[in-house]
């Protein structure tokens, strides 16, 4: 496994956490755990390298959801109050190649992984 692959995945997810004000110690710990786990996974399946970044994002999203947080929330569907608060998810489902954040309500692409706005 190429260490640069894991560093890139970490950087993309951290950038999105920071963009949405969610780079808390708990979230960063979840990110570090996900990177470590997916590093092992990538060692076992080298052909899966294109999926790593998206899978790390999904792992962090799942970890935050389990502790009561939803990340990232959709900001593309109008003002709060007009549309129920809902999340984005990574597509394609396996996390790659070229993972993007998708609105769970509209199905629209909101941003590539690592490019969420504030």
Indicate the low-confidence ranges by residue numbers: none
Helix/strand structural class:
mainly alpha
* β-strand number: 3
Strands across the major sheet, in which order?
A: 1-2-3
Radius of gyration: 14 Å
Percent of residues in beta strands: 5-15%
Mean pLDDT: 91
Distance between the termini: 32 Å
Largest sheet: 3 strands, antiparallel
**Total helical elements:** 3
Primary descriptors:
single chain, 118 residues, mainly alpha, 3 helices
What does this structure look like?
This protein has 118 residues and is mostly helical. It has one domain (3-112). The protein is built from 3 helices and 3 strands. A 3-stranded antiparallel β-sheet has the order 1-2-3. The mean pLDDT is 91.
Give a nutshell description of this structure.
With 118 residues, the protein is mainly alpha-helical.
């Amino acid at each position: 496994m190429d260490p640069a692959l894991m560093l890139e995945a970490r950087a993309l997810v951290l950038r999105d956490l920071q963009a949405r004000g969610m780079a808390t110690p708990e979230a960063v710990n979840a990110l570090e755990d996900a990177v470590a786990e997916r590093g092992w996974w990538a060692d076992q399946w080298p052909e899966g390298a294109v999926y790593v970044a998206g899978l790390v994002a999904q792992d962090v999203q799942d970890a935050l959801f389990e502790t009561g947080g939803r990340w990232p929330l959709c900001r593309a569907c109008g003002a709060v109050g007009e549309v129920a608060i809902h999340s984005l998810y990574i597509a394609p489902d396996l996390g790659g190649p070229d993972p993007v954040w998708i609105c769970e309500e509209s199905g629209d692409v909101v941003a590539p992984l690592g490019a969420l706005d504030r």
